[in-house]
Amino acid sequence: MTKFYSVIDWSRPWLTSILPAAQHILAQEDWRAALNHIAQTLDLRNHRDLPLQFIPQEALPDGVAYESHISQAGKVPTRENLHDFFNALVWLSFPLIKRQLNALQSAQIDSLGIGKSRGPARDAATIFDENAALLVLENSERGHRLLACLREHQWQQAFLDHRDDFGAVAQVWSFGHALMEKLVQPYKGITAHTWAVWVDPHFFKQDFALQVQQLDRQVSAQLQSHALTTADYTPLPVLGVPGWWPGQDHAFYADQSVFRAKRKTS
Asked: Do residues 247 and 201 both lie within one domain?
């Protein structure tokens, strides 16, 4: 029987961040049971220290907000679709970040209610949850120079002149589950909201599992100590990341419908 997630190409570089978690699930017949087995094995818990469990969407009580149910019960409503599947894999891969995002989102709901507008703090947390990529940078002149190019939308400089910086002093890690869902059928205009993470040179020499653990701890600590706003993000057309798509020449990055100049502020 063909699974709903059989359309995913796991060789894509933007899925590296969740691939180890996915490999544990793909081999099992019951994907939701496998998610819960791993969550239990890892002793994953929400910000109230309740054990984390993935439940069918129908088990979400009427009138209870999605984020609130995760916060109050430790139960993550999970539909049989790519969006929720990727979300579950991110929970397994970066549980501390997801826990902190849920704490922020549920606190905003408790304070302001659901309403039509999320409010700036919840909006920023939702953007992170859905569409963020972690831009991991060496805390050095090279790292700061690359970030400056990206923030100024100097795409040719960032992706061509500084191409060798990627992998050596910079990495892009997909995080948002909506971002991953869009990338199942990639198109050039897909843009992530990047969150800068500064690391020392040793980070890039570490084992993958240690890198994941460091990012999970470090970013969750950032989210606890920082008042999150939408101004924190730097846009990144993800297929421009060196090695993430073929044909990345000058003409590729000259496409101003995707690699747009920075808006001038008055």
From this structure: yes
